[in-house]
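Priority: low. Protein: SUF system NifU family Fe-S cluster assembly protein. Input follows.
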Amino acid sequence: MSFDNLDTLYRQVIMDHYKNPRNRGTLSGEDHLSVDMNNPTCGDRIQLQMQVEDGKVTDAKFEGEGCSISMSSASMMTQVIKEKTVDEALKLSKIFSEMIQGKDVDTDELDLGDAQALQGVSKFPARVKCATLAWKAMEKGVGVEEE
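Result:
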């Protein structure tokens, strides 16, 4: 597949998650983690809710508003961390962060799913914070859980 075709495919995946976000909404009950974060430089904001049971993320939902990169990344992240252990979710976040910063990453160990479509963001440093907002919220949430 040529670079142009791959770039077009990635753009389509990003826009699909933006227009049809997965896991948008809130979790019922009160026994879940909730993290609010924002990116003051561009106005993106997210409220991430996660259900963590026995060290595993059993459910994740988000609410918020922002650019297509930020909201599609939140959609992708909630999909990829479900049914993962907290350690696996944190490893995925590390791999994602390195990918977004333009570093060579080995995605064979853990699959980033559709989030790999965001790898081109590394070419736009101003958008890195948009792409990583939901992932940083997840890290903060599970960090609170571990205390």
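The domain at 3-146 is CATH 3.90.1010.10 (Sufe protein. Chain: A). The chain has one domain: 3-146.
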